[in-house]
Amino acid sequence: MSATLALTASVSCWAAKPIVMATKSFTEMHILSALTTIYLRKKGFQVEPKTNIATAISRNAMINKQIDMMWEYTGTSLIIFNHITQPMSAHEAWETVRRLDAKLDLIWLNPSPMNDTYAFAMDRKRADRDHIDTMSQLAAKIEDVRQHDPDNNWLLGLDLEFAGRSDGLKPLQKAYSMPLDRPQIRQMDPGLIYNAIRDGFVNVGLVYTTDGRVKAFDLKILKDDKGFFPSYAITPVVTRQALEAHPGLADALNTLSAQITDETITEMNKRVDIDHQSPQQVANDFLKSKGLI
After folding, report:
1. Helical spans, DSSP H, in 103-205
2. Residue 10: which of 251, 250, 244 has the closest Cα?
3. Nearest CA among 18, 35, 23 for reference residue 72
4. What secondary structure letter does DSSP report for 26?
5. Among 68, 69, 15, which Cα is nearest to 45's?
6. What pLDDT digit, counting tens, does each position of 7-24 carry?
C-alpha cells in the first residue's frame, strides 16, 4: 500500500469513529458536555461523551490518544500541567499553553470569553454601602477596621487549599498589602463560602466567578485591579488526529466557544445548581436561544 493510500485509510478509520469527549465532575463541565454533545450531533458529528473524568486522567488520556477532545481552562494548563506561575494576560496564557501543547499534538482552539477564576465576593448591599468595588478598596477597608476598630475585624472565608497554596493567600496579601491577623481567616469547604457571605458569617469570601450561587445570592465580585488571579478561560482542546479526521470540527467548536460568556455560563450554572434543572435541558434551551440548533 502506498503512503498516500495508507494515510487516507488511517484518516477514514478515524472519521468512522465517534469523537470521544471527556469532561470533569462538576456542574459547569456537565453543562459543557451537554452543550457540545447536542450541538455537534446536530452538526452531523458522532460524539461519545465521558463525564466525571479527573483532570490528570483526562490529560493523560488525550496525550495517549485515548480521547479526542476536552474542555480545559487555560490557567489549569498553565499552572498545573506546565508549572508556570508568572503573571500574564489572558491572551498570553492562551498563546503559551497553545504553543506548548502543540508539541504533543494537542490543539487549543479559540478560547471562550468566560473566565472562571478565583475572586473575592461580598454581599452586594454591603459592598455598595461601603463603596467597595475592587480588591484594593477591600484591602484598604480591612486595614482601616483593623487599625481603628479591632474588636470588629473583618472576617475572610477561604477554602483550605487557597489558604496554604504557594500562589494563594500569602502572595495575595503581598500583592495587595493586606496584613491579616490569624483569627480573621475562616477556613471552610469551598461550597460553604457562598452561604457564609450571604448569611453574614464572613464579610468577604473567595469564590469562583461563574458559580451559579454568585447570581442566586446576589453577591458582588470585586475587581482584581492588580491582576493577581490567572485567567481561566475555558477552551476546546482537540487532538490533531481528530481535527484532521473530522473536517469542520474546529469551526463548529469555535462557534460554540464564542457563545460561552461569564454571564451565560453563570446563568446556566444557576439553573442547574439552584433551580435544579438538568444540564441537558439547560444546554438545549441555550443552544436554541442562540440559533445553534
Report:
1. 124-129, 135-148, 160-164, 169-175, 190-198
2. 244
3. 23
4. S
5. 15
6. 454 445 555 689 999 999
Please answer whether residues 184 and 156 qualify as being in contact, where contact means their C-beta atoms are separated by less than 8 angstroms.
yes
Query: In whole angstroms, what is the distance from residue 76 CA to residue 231 CA?
Result: 9
CA 76 to chain centre: 9
Q: Record the pTM.
A: 0.85
Reported as a single tens digit per residue, the pLDDT across 243-284 is: 999 999 999 999 999 999 999 999 999 999 999 999 999 999
Q: Coil, helix or strand for 71?
A: strand
- Are the C-beta atoms of residues 83 and 104 closer than 8 Å to each other? no
C-alpha to C-alpha distance for 124 and 9, rounded to whole angstroms: 59
Q: What is the helix (H) or strand (E) element at residue 21, kind and residue range?
A: strand 19-22
Q: Where are the alpha helices (DSSP H) in the chain?
A: 3-16, 27-42, 55-63, 74-76, 90-102, 124-129, 135-148, 160-164, 169-175, 190-198, 212-216, 240-245, 249-258, 262-273, 279-289
Q: Could you count the other beta carbons within 10 Å of the beta carbon of residue 182?
A: 5
Grouping H, G, I as helix, E, B as strand and the rest as coil, residue 130 is coil
